């Protein structure tokens, strides 16, 4: 079974940092449950297609920016948590936050993103 630490890493690097739509959608199908629910301060979406559209929109807001982990993985049971930062490669971050996932049957079933103030 895939661990929540591995799923968080793949989500960050291969989904939220992936500019190629087709590659991103392939990983979304591998990492996320079909009926995934993603909630951030601006929206709640359900399903892989709506998640993919939300990620595409987020990437368009900061072209060239990358997400990097900003601390260790933490988790218990089916939950995983990791802080992250967003900014230009090698530059100062412009945004930070924390992702919380719930894993069901080896895939991310729920994803909550909280932004730092």
TrEMBL record:
Domain SnoaL-like: 15-110
InterPro entries: NTF2-like_dom_sf, SnoaL-like
Pfam families: SnoaL_2
Gene3D superfamilies recorded: 3.10.450.50
Protein name, per record: SnoaL-like domain-containing protein
Taxonomic source organism: Microlunatus aurantiacus
Organism placement in taxonomy: Bacteria, Bacillati, Actinomycetota, Actinomycetes, Propionibacteriales
């Amino acid at each position: 079974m895939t661990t929540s630490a591995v799923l968080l890493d793949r989500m960050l690097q291969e989904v939220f940092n992936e500019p190629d739509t087709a590659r991103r959608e392939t990983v979304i199908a591998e990492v996320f449950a079909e009926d995934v629910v993603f909630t951030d301060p601006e929206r709640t979406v359900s399903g892989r297609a709506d998640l993919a559209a939300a990620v595409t929109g987020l990437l368009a807001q900061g072209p060239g920016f990358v997400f990097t982990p900003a601390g260790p993985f933490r988790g218990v049971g089916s939950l995983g948590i990791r802080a992250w930062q967003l900014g230009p490669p090698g530059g100062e971050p412009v945004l930070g936050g924390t992702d919380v996932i719930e894993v069901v049957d080896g895939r991310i079933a729920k994803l909550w993103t909280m932004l730092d103030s």
